[in-house]
Known about the structure:
Layout: E1 5-9, H1 15-22, H2 25-30, H3 39-47, E2 53-60, E3 63-72, E4 80-87, H4 96-111, E5 116-122, H5 126-134, E6 138-149, E7 152-162
Parallel strand pairs: 4-5
Antiparallel strand pairs: 1-2, 2-3, 3-4, 5-7, 6-7
Amino acid sequence: MSEQIILRPVAAEDEKDINILRRQPSVMHYTLGLPSERRASSQSFIEGLKENDHVIVTEYGGRVVGIGSLEVLSGKLHYYGLTAMAVHDEFQHRGIGSRLLDHLLDIADNYLGLLRLELDVVEGNARAVQLYKSRGFEPEGTLRKAHFAGGAFYNVLVMGRLNTELFPGD
């Protein structure tokens, strides 16, 4: 990749690229994306973001090719975050997901002081599972047949990560 990868907060003008990304075959297979999803859905998502929603996009060559989110819960769960990510099919296996996840973890650990992060990943998504494990996420449970894609049901792994800097015991 000769062009620079830029990680930045999501912007309103990203809705077109996000819609294209969410309709990529592997993204739809491993997320809740649908082939009938319209740009208005991406626009509504961006417009509906709240203060505790930290959404980062990966820009390459002037277009969004990856998206990751970190949702910080509130009330008694203010120490807890949920994460999700997707990378455009044409840009997978190039380290974009790793850079995106590292950026989200930096926000969680060094700016928000989150103790716990959690994510769901389709069990057959071996590359994603390996990436998450390499960053300290551990499988905590299985949601049986909780994801439907390509005419079949798949198990979903629930993975969690504790910030051991904030919580050295356990």
